[in-house]
Amino acid sequence: MNGVLLYARSRALPVTLAALAGTTAFAVWAADRMDTYLDPHRKLPLVALAPLLAAAVIGGSLHTASDELDRTAVRPWWPRRQAQLLGLTALAAALLPLAVLGDTPGFGPPAMIRNLLGCTGITAAAAAVLGARLSWLPAFGYVTAVYLASGGVRGRAVTVWAWPMQPGHEAGAWAAAGGAFLLGTVLYVVRGARPEGPRG
Amino acid sequence: MSTIRVTGLHVRHRRTVALDTVDLALGRGVHGLLGPNGAGKTSLIRVLSTVARPSAGRVEILGEDVGDPRRCGPVRARLGYLPQEFGYYPGFTVSEFVAYVAWLKELPAADTPAAVARAVARVGLADRADAKVRTLSGGMIRRVGIAQAIVNDPDVLLLDEPTAGLDPEQRVEFRALLRELGATATVIVSTHLVEDVAAACTEVTLLDAGRVAYRGTPASLSALGERTGPDGMGDNPIERGYSAALRAHRTGAEALR
């Protein structure tokens, strides 16, 4: 009955790790089915959607069933929250680029990692503001909206607000996604997931 | 000697005043916290458990001012808390859940298995220690909640509606456990069941609309009920005393004792 293992199980980390592995496997499988794309080199759907799925999985693990009891813990929570969020993000950042290795100009590993950071940041912020169970929703809504709306739009601003659709070398997209990750991480680490249920 | 000292405690939930200038001093023993719905019982328990912060006032537990977050840690290690809804992890067994709380309380790892086994046995769940919590009945889950609250042998034990869902036999056993715990610790039990207070508590605090309406012993509350006679509201003296104390507080009457 190791305490750290119990903590990991309380946050459904075994299931989360399995889901992240499943997400990676799914992304690799989808990447190899080139005939599903109009352009055989087009990786944008993968680079936009796989990080979204991974962020949703990470968001689910931020849920705590015993928030009221957890708040009576002797040690402060922020180091554990930080370790959990950064650890899972690092793992996903190591796994997901496997799906876009090779000759994928613009939409290779850098874009995948950038989008993972952005989506995870939005999801972590949503966990702090809305609660972990709904944490996937804002990132899903934002990425879907940008995916549908950014096609054909030109200009400097689009590289920032449409960061999930930008090539990996766009500095503005990195700044936006990095800012979202920083903000979400700080919000979640400081406040934790918003309590759900009668006291939420 | 007081282990809990509350001075000028004020708690607001948005526009609602939950506790209004409450002063209390509580020492070793079992203290019953009575009052109608919305009286402020849960708000008081949550502040004492260090889960909620007061809007104003000072709360001292075991000699530490818990308004200072840096001083909460040592108090939490010596505190047990059963919230009204404590939540549990469906995949955990009874022992695992109690061990998880022991870990939150920083119990030494070497002592945890014995502490868990003892807490589980004290609530009569030794034969279900390896059962998943989700497979238990409502009353058993409540007992798991009590087990996690006592796993660290707390000096201050806060129980919010601990007997909800317990059958009569379990309630009688629980009262005996309360009396045992109250011999060495400060136990505060928030409840609607005045018969639990009569049977297990050494002192009674009655809250109404966020204020202390009455303080005394179960015997003094019963005596108040006796004075109102059989025409008072309630089926027994302590229920009549509860109703009379509330009525007196609401009409602003003084000197109940």
From TrEMBL, chain A:
Q: Does the keyword Transmembrane apply?
A: yes
Question: Transmembrane stretches, by residue range?
Answer: 12-32, 44-63, 83-101, 113-132, 171-190
The reply on keyword Membrane is yes
User: Which keywords describe this protein according to UniProt?
Assistant: Membrane, Transmembrane, Transmembrane helix
What name does UniProt use for this protein? Uncharacterized protein
